[in-house]
């Protein structure tokens, strides 16, 4: 499996599809590159699609020290991956956590970003998490470390509105939810959750983003409000609302998602 090694010695998994201008995408917290499966063929038809897994996730290393898993580290992981691939500039993006990483990368390294794609991401808005979300995430850490990933999958199905929304639209997704959680290590997932709970608030800096930006969100996603806030602060951003779609918009409406993203990529010239 291909990996790059970060400046602090963490191995980061990535996979490549297609040829052309580079597009780097990361999925949401607890996700993996395979969660882009319905989109790979379309997005790689005219571009070099690079799917990567942030530290603490799936096939990337999971440092045990929570101080080594932060948004700052994830931004540096993307920077180091681009250096490893010898990419001076690229289109960066992601879903949920992945979108939050890509947005912060764009703010930190604007000269390395050609365009930005943000999907279903509250963390990209930089707004504080709601109380219910904080409580649910904190409980998730406890469940993960005490019960393991199957227990966490059960808890997510019962308590995470993002997961519940996906199952409402596609009850058969229950099996894949267990499969995805089983790709994680308890310490990796717990530390990723800790990083999410301690994220920096970048809302006031979003106006600094000048690159072409695409925002994609499902009509039934709790992230819709924060995504609209991003739209207000990045006036040039294009917005694609998919329906019916949950937090996992790329999987709920793959054809509409692919069309929106491909049209945006083609508009870049």
Explain briefly what this protein structure is.
The protein has 269 residues and is of the alpha/beta class.
What does this structure look like?
The protein has helices at residues 40-44, 71-84, 97-108, 131-147, 149-159, 161-169, 174-182, 186-197, 224-233, 249-252, 254-267, and strands spanning 3-5, 11-17, 21-26, 47-53, 90-95, 113-119, 213-218, 238-242. The protein has 269 residues and is of the alpha/beta class. The chain has one domain (3-126, 203-267): Alpha/Beta hydrolase fold, catalytic domain (Rossmann fold). It has an eight-stranded mixed sheet with strand order 1-2-4-3-5-6-7-8, sandwiched between helices. The chain is globular, with a radius of gyration of 17 Å.
| Strands, total number | 8
Radius of gyration: 17 Å
Secondary-structure content class: alpha/beta
Query: Which fold name is given in CATH as the topology?
Result: Rossmann fold
Query: What average pLDDT do the residues reach?
Result: 97
How far do the termini sit from each other?
Answer: 32 Å
Arrangement of strands in the largest sheet: 1-2-4-3-5-6-7-8
Please name the fourth-level CATH homologous superfamily: Alpha/Beta hydrolase fold, catalytic domain
Largest β sheet strand count, sense and barrel closure? 8 strands, mixed
Shape assignment:
globular
Q: How are the SSEs placed, and which strands pair?
A:
Elements: E1 3-5, E2 11-17, E3 21-26, H1 40-44, E4 47-53, H2 71-84, E5 90-95, H3 97-108, E6 113-119, H4 131-147, H5 149-159, H6 161-169, H7 174-182, H8 186-197, E7 213-218, H9 224-233, E8 238-242, H10 249-252, H11 254-267
Parallel strand pairs: 3-4, 3-5, 5-6, 6-7, 7-8
Antiparallel strand pairs: 1-2, 2-4
Helix pairs in contact: 2-3, 4-5, 4-8, 5-6, 5-7
């Amino acid at each position: 499996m291909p990996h790059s090694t970060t400046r602090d010695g963490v191995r980061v998994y990535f996979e490549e599809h297609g040829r052309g201008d580079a597009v780097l995408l990361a999925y949401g917290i607890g996700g993996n590159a395979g969660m882009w499966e319905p989109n790979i063929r379309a997005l790689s038809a005219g571009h070099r699609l690079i799917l990567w897994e942030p530290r603490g996730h799936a096939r990337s290393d999971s440092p045990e020290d929570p101080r080594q898993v932060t948004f700052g580290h994830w931004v540096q992981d993307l920077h180091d991956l681009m250096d490893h691939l010898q990419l001076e500039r690229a289109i960066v993006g992601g879903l949920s956590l992945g979108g939050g990483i890509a947005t912060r990368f764009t703010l930190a390294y604007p000269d390395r970003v050609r365009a930005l794609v943000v999907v279903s991401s509250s963390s990209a808005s930089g707004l504080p998490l709601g109380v219910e979300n904080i409580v649910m995430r904190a409980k998730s850490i406890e469940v993960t470390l005490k019960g393991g990933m199957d227990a966490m999958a059960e808890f997510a199905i019962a308590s995470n509105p993002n997961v519940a929304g996906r199952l409402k639209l596609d009850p058969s997704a229950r099996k894949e939810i267990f499969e995805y959680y089983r790709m994680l290590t308890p310490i990796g997932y717990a530390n990723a959750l800790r990083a999410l709970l301690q994220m920096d608030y970048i809302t006031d800096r979003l106006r600094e983003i000048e690159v072409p930006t695409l925002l994609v969100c499902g009509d039934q996603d709790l992230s819709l409000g924060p995504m609209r806030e991003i739209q207000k602060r990045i006036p040039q951003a294009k917005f694609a609302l998919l329906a019916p779609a949950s937090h996992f918009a790329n999987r709920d409406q793959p054809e509409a998602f692919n069309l929106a993203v491909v049209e945006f990529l083609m508009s870049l010239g």
